[in-house]
Amino acid sequence: MNENEVPGQNPDQQPVQQPGQQPQDPSRQPAPPVHQPWGQSPYGPAVSQSPYGAYGQPASQQNPYGQQPGYGTPSRRPGIIPLTPLALGDLLSGSFAAIRRNAAAVLGTALIVALIEIVVSVFATNVLFDATYSIILMEEGGQDPFLGDPLTNPVFGQLFGSIALLFLGALLAALAGVIANGVLAVVVLRSAAGLKTSLGQAWKLTGRQIWSLMGLALVYLVAGAIVFALFIGVFVGLVIAAVSEDGGMAALMGILLFVLTVASVVISAWLYIKLVLAAAASAVELKGPFKAMGRSWSLTRGHWWRTLGIILLVAVIVGIIASIITTPLSMIGGVFAPLDPTTSMEEMMDSTRWWTLLSVAVSSLVNALALVYSSCLIALLYIDYRIRHESFDLDLAAAAEAAGAGDDERFSTVRDVQAATGTDQLVPGRHPSGPSTPAGTSGPAGH
Description:
By secondary structure, the chain is an all-alpha fold. The chain has one domain (88-414). It is built from 12 helices and no strands. It has helices at residues 88-101, 103-140, 154-192, 199-206, 209-243, 247-274, 278-285, 289-299, 304-335, 345-390, 392-403, 414-421. The longest helix is centred in the last third of the chain and has 46 residues, at 345-390. The radius of gyration is 33 Å and the shape is globular.
């Protein structure tokens, strides 16, 4: 064997490098394989199979693992948000994007909520107008409208009926709000992975969890009723003490009422922020009411002030927009009210009635739109905290890869891909057994 030949090399082939000779040009020095077997020389036959490419190419220009990311080929923004911890701008813009790209599901849900509130509120307002008109007519006739047995007096019946209907409307609105939070959480999570959702599909994917959402709303209502009962008890005690001219007892009841008011506001705000993600957790992760509350409690750990600030900011923005829409309507109603002194009370009441009913209907619709926007933002907070605690971006990326979703600019191709890949039932993060990484710990992504 010629002393210039390299073992294992064809004698007719020119050697690339003499053994033992130090290469003069570092850029042409072959790099060893990434996973070099123990005891194997970095030179020799394995050199030509190095993942770093052919000789003469700098190793830094090639990815030793190929061109694929660690979990496939999804874009870092396959849907309405980037797959990173979300900033305030991402939350605000992502909520609008969810509404725009799932208009049927989001606005259809808003319409359902609005119809429930409109029917009850309009009916209650109409009954209240009837009671007011009856009181005015009886007073004009020289009668006392509140004289007699409250059980047989029609005025009392109309007043109590309208109050009961308004209370029922508030209960139904609260119930519809919790259900809408859960339904829209499913829509937003799918949209974050680049999946569009129809109205029927959104409610179908929520499925039996609607009963859990109703149970969650019932828990909230019971807690609110207990606080309300405490207020009523203290207020009644204050009135009794004032009527009996017991100054000491009245002062004590007044102090107690003030302390109870402050404490209830503080505790209610704290609990609301801690449990704000419960509806989303229930709908997405198939959890019951109390487990969903515990899930929200753990996800918001360490983020209470941030969550409070974001929700207050959104409430202010939504309130300003709602006022811009509803205030002109109230002003128009006052302009068109009959001012002729010869106008009868009946005509005056009818004119005021119709404008008031229209204002109530429009306000209910605006409130429903505000509700769905807030629900979308809460769903994005749920995604954000799961990304921070559990590397949930990996689940979203996997769902986007399954759907074939491209970058955000190519979102229009998702519908065809979705139909072809059978992802109609896909909800990112829906694992009945729960997440693999407990909340409060950092996942492999290091968020």
